[in-house]
UniProtKB/TrEMBL annotation:
UniProt-recorded name of the protein: Beta-1,4-galactosyltransferase
EC number per UniProt: 2.4.1.-
InterPro entries to which the protein is assigned, alphabetical: Galactosyl_T (IPR003859), Galactosyl_T_C (IPR027791), Galactosyl_T_N (IPR027995), Nucleotide-diphossugar_trans (IPR029044)
Function comment: Catalyses the transfer of galactose onto proteins or lipids.
Amino acid sequence: MDLQRLRCRKGKCLVLGIICCLLFIIVLSLYPLQDLSACSIPSPAVDLSVLCKEAKRKCTFNNNEDSSLKHANPPDQVIPPAEGEAPSELDKEGQPPHKMALIVPYRDRLEELLQFAPYMHKYLKDKHIAHQIYVINQVDNYRFNRASLINVGFLESRSDCDYIAMHDVDLLPRNPTLNYGYPEEGPFHVASPEYHPKYNYSKFVGGILLMNKDNFIRVNGMSNRYWGWGREDDELYVRLLKARLQIRRPTGLETGRKDTFLHNHNAMRTRDNKRFFNQTRLTSRLDRETGVSTVKYSVDHRVNLVIDGAPVTMLNVRLKCDLEKTKWCLKKEDHDKLYRSAANFIINN
């Protein structure tokens, strides 16, 4: 009889434990997490001058910090035309009719940047492409969000440029005949899967993609849900199709996948391709809610650099994360803060 009672107690404890775990998970999913934004801790400042000396690069700096640079765009914001937009015809000084914002989403890739900036400046200058390089440096402690940084780059550059090149810092064009001109007929995918050294699936639109301002606004830019590495370009591909924008690519090049581009990626650096919480499910469907009109961020300060003769505008950007909708913006080591907060919520209620 005692043995039967013991087994019964153990069974009840097991059921009770399962019920408690389920309640904990439910509370965690419902608990208002916006108060945990303190998890975003700024990365320590980097002394670029020291790093430039170590890399034997000539760099000059002009730091500008202005509170007017800070932004927090409200949801569903309609983007009005920016003041001082690039003219559609030659101006009085005979400048080119279009200017490209070369947007580089960036974090902790100084070696690549020191090679990228002077190389691309010379490459575009030789092709007579008016341009400005914008390095959008993510300085918060959330996971890397390439798409949001591109949205930020678009907003910060649109008063000076009338089209953008979304450009990975580790991909350099080697073929001088690649087209970086104004994409008047629609998005132009420079890093075509036919020539990209690594990615060759037909829906690939990453690496280097040119879009004019009208087209970028038409698709509402890129989704802000993609924290971590990968899949944001595939989502953009669907947005372009839904907007009936034809993607054009280079054809007939005399180079191939081995010599059209230089993929300057350090194989020792691991990619943050983990999927946390309900990230896989929510990022497997088209995001109809977020984009360039809803990206939330602030610009800590603007740094004007000259790297081996190449002018670069670096924006230190702090992205905002809605922890109720995208908990996976947090790094793995910050997840325990969510569990502790949910546990405290259960105890206090």
